[in-house]
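Question:
Write out your own:
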Amino acid sequence: MPLDLQAQAYLDQMAALNAPPLYTLTPELIRQGTRMQIAMSGEPEAVANVENRVIPGPAGDIPIRIYTPSGNGPFPVLVFFHGGWVICDLDTHDDICRSLTNQATCIVVSVDYRLAPEHKFPAAPEDCYAATRWVARNAAQLNGDAGRVAVGGDSAGGNLAAVISQMARDQGGPSLVFQLLIYPATDFTATTPSSEENAHGYFLDKQDMIWFMNHYLNGEEDKLNPLASPLLAPDLSGLPPALIITAQYDPLRDEGELYGQRLKAAGVPVTISRYNGMIHGFLSMASILNQGKQAIAECAAALQAAFTLSLLELPGAPPQLWIVPQPDGTKGQVEVHHLRSQVLDNERRFWVYTPASYTRSGERYGLLLLFDGSLYTHRISTPTILDNLVREGKLPPLVTVMLDNLDWETRNRELACHQPFVDFLTQELMPWVREHCHVTSDPAQTIVGGSSYGGLAAAFVGLRASETFGNVLSQSGSFWWDKDPEEDFGQEWIIQQFITTPRLPLRFYLEVGLKEDWGWIHMVACNRHFRDVLLLKGYEVHYAEFNGWHHFVSWRGSLADGLVALVGKGPEA
């Protein structure tokens, strides 16, 4: 598609000014010119409340600007990072933040991170991550909802939003529900078709990008760091859903879309929305570019959808009391580890949570093993749930291992009643855990759990390894699963195994949502069937049904119920 007529008119106006190219100027000259342009701009879009504050950062105070919409709240929160790395500030992106605040009906916290070259990489991601953590911890003070926090930004800010999403996943939170990436830079090493096709004449030139890179990075080695080039991260699974906006005539178009493709391959829900005829920075030109207005509306709609899905609570749904971090409360530690599996012939990542009171002496701790580790670590916020339950005396301190998946295909194979996976758990993972953590070997104080296929896997692990795991926690377990897909549907293979196997020393917590049936899959019926079979066999079963869907938003609200039911009274439960 040819260049949009409005974009062409803008570029013609810029060319008529005969201004020197950006890459020939100093950062301070560009900043001064930008401030002069802002001073001549008209009245900004009205927002119910705008407040400038400073918050503590890793190297001093970080200025932020908080935009609050009209209404009662608590509101979801978007933490927004402006573009530039070297130039731009809170004022340059004031218009975008105001529009998103009003159209998405969310609080926007705009972050004025330290700029290069005065503060080179990794100062910017350090500030942005610190600000995101502060927002999550202090959301209630802002009339915000800590359970509905997203990150976003444009250009360099899109880069930072992608980076902060990865940091939140890998460094123990906060849990993010969405990432809004507007024409993001994702790979400093890339030479893509769009970087050559659009190298000159479309607002952002290739030489401009080199200028930004040289001011921002310390040297060649920084280009390979995923905190600078998020596309180079080896694993993109477990990240929040994303909307990626790109522009046809943008040098960064391809690397933004490549990042989206890698997210999709990792099982992350993502929408890639290319605006044909547009140039880099077109959302900031919404006052003169119609497609800029459309893109802001798309961003707002995507945020609203993400926030609504995260909030969704039907009448009769239990309140989610345990997922909110307590600012003054003691917190456990989360560390990421890797283990090479000879049984599965792959390397596995997992997170280990140890409670705030953890010590390697005295009575050994109970153990919780959860599948879909990234989901339970970051989106279900298991560490926060455990912190709160222990603080309130509802649960004894537990060491928790959250085992991640390699990819979607491997997950669906390993969690579907796969004996080699059980062998990996019993022969490799559990010995590692007992060597490195002060945990019990008592199966009565050991829980295996998961959701969906993870619930199915938990039941199968209990069936095959009850000498190790004495408690099974299943959230929306896929007990409909058929071992032989060629046969008629409805085998419920795992249930048949429990029917024909003598009663084992196992206790169960099963739950399912009343809105989970779809197509030929009848989640409620198969969970009820499994419950009835277990009760007839003489098992202790705690069973619950919630008014919700097959989604982590439901599971994060009820995980605490399952844990308390199984080990809430300690060893004598």
Q: What stands out?
A: The first strand starts at residue 49 and ends at 57. Residues 290-311 form the longest helix (22 residues).
